[in-house]
């Protein structure tokens, strides 16, 4: 550190230690003072800190002698314009009769060289002044009343760490670090540029809006870049954007480090690069990118460089073609162009900065001894020059300098009680010999005014302005020049969701393409798929997994599949829910049609048998078969065949109640008839001659037994329907992909009671018929009843496990099959032998043959 910096720090300590005491020692500067590069005296002095030079050379430290002062080089035309804009605003205010009347404003402009060490010298020079001995106590006032600057966040922080001790207000036009909004740490800081807190979030929303979820990031390795990028990465993760790499560079880094960063960018798969860089770092990065031929990237920039005209007009503008980024709104400052064109070394022939500016602008030298260079005459005209100094087409940051100067002027106007600015003309101000920095800070916090351009200027509680940005796109005009076209906007004061808007202007993308580049780690998952995170990789790198059955995703890149409602199922593509297929045994399908055919065939066949019996009703065989019970049995069998039809078709409330009760009652009637016939056969074959000695089973008794057995089943059915009747039920548990429309039993007890009663009658018939199977006769009906009951019982015993285990509509099909099989079994076993004799063996249809007692063959 140079001797002057050491002495200046001692000065700070002296002021802190002795400033409050009445007998404090006099202050004396032991080293050399710092001199401003541009200055003018006035009643009020505004300091300026600008990076007029962009390069700094640090002298070697031998630790044996006084270090040489820091040397700054390479004039920065844009920053020099900022300094001249400050002078222009001061001159404009001095010529005004309404703002600070009869009060002149002076200025002291220092060169911070865009680095923290020169910024320390700058702030000490602004505070101390140029006098070697103050001639008064150390509690004296600073040489400036307010400071405009600096252009970098790190330099501004360094200045605030010193000026903040004395609460000297600092108003920055370009320091955007969100850390500077900390009012506790920096109570005297203000700025006319929004905080990066908002810009970083705006960049994250922009990247997400354009569908880029996989981006690279590069930043300046300072407070501006590190804080801004940290905020961006946090906001990006909230938006679902992943960062492939995040590299930091500094303008003081060796060439090898910059080359390494460019290689990382080139080797990355991200096609979008978010560059949170100050102009110094941007320059050296682009130089190396040009050396390595790095092209084809979509650049997204911060406001530090996104509207820098010298980047757009230089040889590497092709690398940045189509760049996007947020910047503050541009404006026009009336008279600034003319003021800038009047700058000339003749204004102050001894000023080295003006001479250096002139030499760099025209490529000449004021020293005639320089070999091969044109001699500068000083009469060259800036009218013909087009560089960042003379370019006023993009007045954004310059306007911030302009606003900062006017903010100080309005604060001083109010503090000196000059009346309402703009209303009172030629009014004198109440001058104070000692202007307290605290009071200036207080009045700066309260300023609220409107510029001639119509722009309102005020500060919030953190010293920040309203955060509003333009989204600019680098495009070529007809002349082939790069222009910054506003294609959108971001206003942090609007509600969330309405802050970021696009204005519909066509965007030119990287490499001047009209097609928006894609930058994703993994391709989008189509509807019907969901993202599955790949272990060990960011969330933006995923595989696409098809949604499971019954689940859908109806948008691209769905994080998860949503389950369909209970009565819906996913379609083939798993992109939408469709109503589930309702399944029931219908007449239109093959199985339903076959069962219907066999049901009607069975009923028709039964009617044919009835007609045959009716035709031969007077023959011995029909009479011996108890014609009344035979016809009643045929009637019940017809109903049994027909009741199978109630099980086919869409279940309804009435069909559910009818199918089971009809089935129960008709089969109970059928079994009752067979039981009565069996009893009659047994009694008939057990009879002894003469007939009148044994009581016979009379017809009324048979009718009564049939009616009683049937009524008992009717009673069970009535109780079932009364207590818990069957009802239609949508079964979604058995098959997830379809709805099985079936009849719920209501009361399983009722169903099994009906079925059990039929089984009881069948078993009773089987036992009685089995006992009478060997009775002697040419036509023993008992053995046919035995066969029929054997088939009947076998069918229904087999039915029970098949019924319980059959899925869906097959449950109903099994029940119909059991009904038809048992009905056909009864019909064929009981009536087929009789029809055979009636139709094919009429010679055996005689009373003599019926009464014959030939020994029957055993079963």
Which features would summarize this protein structure in a list?
859 residues; alpha/beta; Rossmann fold; 4 domains; 8-stranded mixed sheet; 31 strands; disordered C terminus
Secondary structure: elements and pairs:
Elements: H1 3-18, E1 26-28, E2 38-40, E3 44-50, E4 53-57, E5 71-75, H2 77-94, E6 105-111, H3 116-128, E7 133-137, E8 146-148, H4 153-163, E9 170-172, E10 189-191, H5 196-209, E11 214-220, H6 223-238, E12 242-249, H7 255-267, E13 272-276, H8 279-291, E14 298-301, H9 309-313, E15 324-327, H10 336-341, H11 352-362, E16 364-365, E17 374-375, H12 397-415, H13 437-445, E18 448-450, E19 456-458, E20 468-476, E21 482-491, E22 500-502, E23 529-533, E24 542-546, E25 551-552, E26 562-563, E27 568-570, E28 577-579, E29 581-583, H14 590-615, H15 620-624, H16 627-643, H17 653-686, H18 699-723, E30 727-731, E31 738-744, H19 748-771, H20 781-805, H21 809-840, H22 847-851
